[in-house]
Write a structure and sequence with these properties.
- The longest helix has 12 residues.
- The strands form four sheets. Strands 6-18-4-5-15-12-13-8-7-17-16 form an eleven-stranded antiparallel sheet.
- It is mainly beta.
- It starts with 8 loop residues before the first strand and ends with a strand.
- The radius of gyration is 17 Å and the shape is globular.
Length: 265
Amino acid sequence: MVLVLLIVGALVLVGGIVLAVVLTSGGGHGGGLAVQIPTTAAPSAVQTNGVSAGPCKYTATPQTPAPSGKEVGLPDDPYPTPSTGTVTVTLHTNLGDIPLALDRAEAPCTVQSFLHLASSKFFDSTSCHRETAYPTLKVLQCGDPTGEGTGGPGYVIPDEKPTGLRPAQTNAGDPPASVYPRGTIAMANTGQPNTGGSQFFLVYGDSQLPPDYTIFGAVSPAGLTTMDTITANGITPGTDPSTGQTSDQDGKPRQTVTIEQAQVG
């Protein structure tokens, strides 16, 4: 996976027209936070040839290493992967807290990786580099230490595709899409299988996407209030990937959003 190829289009419908909208790689449904439920697992197996030996098979990407100062290694990969309970992570940002509830049952390998990154301070002092305001795509994207949408943790994680999403209403001949509800937390990817890393997106308004983005939790009501404040500040116009033209619906948040600390528990 070449660094410059990390930007790949996701298909989104706007007024019945297929629009290519970038979701870059590095990365639940709405509702409140649940109580953390402890889980136990056997020790992780030792990695070989850059692949963890547990069931998640986290795979190092030496061709696209983590940025300097953010090298955190592969996540622990215990057998069995913890798959019950909800774990809380709070993104303390310069514009307010965004509490998250990570659902181990929905995406155990993804949650295991996210907790590894949060506990290793990978997300600390990083910016949320992308905000969209299309009628069918309303997300805030974070998790790239470079702040440009091309960085990741130096490894990839397996897809854990969502099930049970409501189909989106599309026009005849348009590609199928599903509704990612407001409050969803999902992983970005390159458009290829098993290419999630550290980048993730927070859905602040119901959005239509192919059901190819791993959902691994939900934003709390308090977190959604913070997100509404962030998105109300607007967007610094970027480039519409479908036309190459400047767009005021896709770009960096107008007011910089910095994750000062990602706190587990």
